Automatic annotation (TrEMBL), chain A:
GO terms for biological process: autophagosome assembly; autophagy of mitochondrion; protein modification by small protein conjugation. GO terms for cellular component: cytosol. This is Ubiquitin-like-conjugating enzyme ATG10. GO terms for molecular function: Atg12 conjugating enzyme activity. InterPro entries: Atg3/Atg10. It comes from Gossypium raimondii. The keyword Phosphoprotein does not apply. Belongs to the ATG10 family. Keywords: Autophagy, Transferase, Ubl conjugation pathway. The lineage of its organism: Eukaryota, Viridiplantae, Streptophyta, Embryophyta, Tracheophyta. The keyword Transferase applies. It comes from the Eukaryota. It holds the Pfam family Autophagy_act_C. Coiled coil: none annotated.
Automatic annotation (TrEMBL), chain B:
Residues 7-100 form the Autophagy protein ATG5 UblA domain. The chain crosses the membrane at residues 291-311. Residues 114-170 form the Autophagy protein ATG5 alpha-helical bundle region domain. Keywords: Autophagy, Cytoplasm, Isopeptide bond, Membrane, Transmembrane, Transmembrane helix, Transport, Ubl conjugation. The keyword Secreted does not apply. The keyword Cell cycle does not apply. GO terms for cellular component: Atg12-Atg5-Atg16 complex; autophagosome; mitochondria-associated endoplasmic reticulum membrane contact site; phagophore; phagophore assembly site membrane. Conjugated with ATG12. This is Autophagy protein 5. GO terms for biological process: autophagy of mitochondrion; cellular response to nitrogen starvation; piecemeal microautophagy of the nucleus. Required for autophagy. Residues 319-424 form the Autophagy protein ATG5 UblB domain.
Length: 227, 430
């Protein structure tokens, strides 16, 4: 397929191929994060063609800001299972576990799912956030945790958050609305002077896409992986 | 344009009980009777229901939600679809329970009144626009006043206002093969017609709801009650109308005129019934006649619709049209993988003989390919599909025949969010 005439969308099959390529690249280079896992959806198999039945999942990522004054770009850290790790760099002597008013230091986590939308024919980022005790976080509290650059991204028309049902789990999740995705993905690849082949586009699609949407959560893709 | 009128005027008679945990007075308040528009959403009934129950509610903040037999009703699904999906054997009035406390936030998306419903509707419209036009700029760039007018037309069931505003969205609906036939038939007496090629995408936004039943049944009232949303799957899926042949056939010229006459007669009969039961009817003051008419109204609508569709069915040799059957094949490919082996029964019509050779019949190579994949990779899916059976299809309260041109269904039975909501009941042997 000629990339020049490509509309920026993926078929369900392409999504699966792209998703595996992305997960592989992520795992081999982005050591700071756990790997994405592909979750198949065995339920009601006659509803969707088999190649589509699944989504990528990355769960329990700590999104708490270590400090209000901290450099906003470096807020995301992996939760290694020991809850202190996120904050320990800056607050290693401060144990505020018993302080009621210390909301700023309570750890918040995010689950991310990358689901294919057959309407928009692009990947969609679904997410939900919760406290360490499992209590779900409402959107206004999540937004407080997001880096300042996120509000800039979110104020643009193409990435706004809506609360909708997770297409597979059928529970309320948040999602970044995908109605502009195809358009900016196309621009992203057209601006590449190398004019890559479609197979290359497919391989890099989710990576490029995530390098944009991940910014909303301060999830940065290391330079190594994007090369 | 008569069919959309019927859809917009369609309503479900509800008998709403206040949940016992929220009754603080003796005797408990009698249930509220209310006629809920099919195309509406349950939280929009709050202004009618809340005053009725307010005197008995415990103090506190109210968050309204509904359940049917303990199953929380998803407010973002249109009321008519909920009814078609959860009441295969229509229960009239439909007994549902209202709650003002204890919102099940883990199952339902929070609803902060009318505004939430409006945004859910607009988002749905946006998605439909994307499917139909390839972008949703027209919805995004709608003026505030148009957006408001559109929303109010949906809330108030004002079809005329809705058509005025929604026409600005330039959402290309597919050409109605049936309508263009009628037109041509009245002008000339040629049986074969060539439908002109059009620039429209031919993609129809469909929201498909599948209720899975594990036990076989003969009567609709034997379908077990849905106690969990786990038993229902629903997806948004565009259906592309594929034109294999260009022509449809009408068997008799009269049929067409006949049908148009029928529409008109129904309209007259219906308009008399429509005037009175439009808002809340509190049970205490309801006289018997009103109650009977109130209960009869949707049934009459239903019967009329069925009759009409039967006539439509008779008038077509629909083999050259893209039919509802073709659309379902795209939506549920695995149920149609090998029609010669399985016993697909739809609306009492046995389709076993319809297709003997699935490889020749499937509408695209993709389906054949999927079949191949299934054969080697997913033996369990094959097993399921060969023992699964579509028992019931319901769109806007009717059970359309599969031979109906899909373009007619798409143009006439769609909801105001431009989605065609299709409820299917599938029996899966276990």
């Amino acid at each position: 397929m000629d990339v020049l005439h490509w509309d920026g969308t993926l078929s369900a099959k392409d999504f699966r191929i792209g998703a595996f390529a992305f997960a592989q690249k992520w795992e081999s280079c982005n050591l700071a994060f756990p790997p994405w896992s592909w979750l198949p959806c065995p339920k009601h198999p006659w509803l969707a063609p088999p190649e589509e039945e699944g989504y990528l999942s990355l769960e329990k990522i700590c999104i708490s800001r270590p400090n209000e004054e901290e450099d906003i770009d470096q807020i995301s850290q992996i939760d290694t299972g020991e809850e202190e790790t996120c904050c320990s760099r800056n607050e290693d002597i401060l144990d505020d576990a018993t302080l009621v008013q210390s909301n700023h230091h309570e750890l918040h986590y995010c689950d991310f799912h990358i689901v294919y939308s057959s309407t928009f024919r692009v990947p969609v980022l679904y997410f939900r956030a919760y406290c360490s005790d499992g209590r779900p976080l409402p959107l206004d509290e999540i937004e407080k945790e997001l880096p300042a650059c996120a509000s800039k991204e979110l104020s643009k028309k193409w990435t706004f958050i809506t609360q909708e049902e997770h297409p597979y789990l059928k529970r309320p999740w948040y999602k970044l609305h995908p109605c502009g995705t195809a358009e900016w993905m196309k621009l992203l690849f057209l601006s590449d002077t190398a004019n890559p082949k479609f197979e290359v586009v497919l391989e890099l699609y989710l990576l490029s896409w995530f390098s944009v949407v991940g910014q909303v959560f301060g999830l940065r893709i290391s330079f190594k992986i994007s090369n | 344009m008569e069919a959309p009128k019927f859809v917009w005027e369609g309503a479900i008679p509800l008998q709403i009980h206040l949940h016992e945990s929220q009754v603080t007075t003796l005797p408990p308040p009698p249930p509220a009777l209310i006629l809920a528009p099919r195309i509406g959403y349950l939280p929009l009934l709050a202004p009618l229901i809340k005053p009725y129950f307010s005197s008995t509610l415990p103090p506190g903040v109210d968050t309204i939600w509904f359940d049917y037999n303990g199953l929380p009703l998803k407010w973002y699904i249109p009321t008519g679809v909920l009814f078609d999906l959860l009441c295969p054997e229509p229960e009239r009035p439909w007994n549902i329970t209202v709650h003002f406390r204890g919102y099940p936030g883990s199952v339902l998306i929070p609803c902060e009144g009318e505004d939430s419903v409006k945004w859910s509707f607009i988002n749905s419209l946006k998605e439909a626009a994307y499917i139909m036009n390839g972008n949703c700029k027209n919805v995004m760039n709608m003026s505030q006043s148009d957006q408001l007018e559109l929303w109010h037309s949906v809330m108030n069931g004002n079809l005329e206002a809705y058509q005025r505003v929604s026409s600005k969205l330039k959402l290309a609906t597919v050409d109605d093969e049936y309508a263009s036939l009628c037109l041509q038939k009245s002008q000339q007496s040629v049986i074969e017609t060539d439908l002109p090629a059009q620039a429209k995408t031919g993609r129809v936004p469909v929201r498909l709801y599948v209720l899975s039943v594990s036990k076989d049944f003969d009567d609709l009232d034997e379908i077990p009650r849905v106690d969990s949303w786990e038993k229902i799957s629903y997806i948004n899926r565009p259906v592309e109308i594929r034109k294999e042949g260009k022509q449809c056939f009408l068997c008799k010229q009269q049929t067409c005129n006949w049908q148009l006459c029928m529409w008109r007669n129904e309209l007259d009969a219906d308009s008399q019934l429509l005037y009175f039961p439009c808002s809340i009817l509190c049970s205490s003051k309801l006289d018997t006649l009103n109650l009977i008419l109130f209960l009869l109204h949707p049934i009459l609508n239903f019967i009329i619709f069925i009759c009409l569709l039967c006539y439509m069915h008779c008038s077509f040799f629909a083999d050259k049209c893209f039919t509802l059957h073709d659309a379902l094949k795209i939506l549920l490919p695995e149920l149609f993988l090998d029609e010669s082996l399985m016993n697909v029964k739809l609306g009492g019509v046995d389709l076993e003989d319809a297709v003997r050779n699935s490889n020749e019949d499937v509408t695209s190579d993709k389906v054949v390919e999927d079949q191949g994949q299934n054969a080697c990779k997913r033996p369990e899916a094959c097993r399921i599909s060969s023992s699964a059976e579509i028992k019931l299809i319901r769109i806007q309260g009717i059970e359309p025949k599969l031979e109906i041109p899909f373009s007619w269904v798409a143009n006439n039975l769609l909801n105001p969010d431009y989605f065609l909501h299709v409820c299917v009941c599938v029996k899966v042997a276990q």
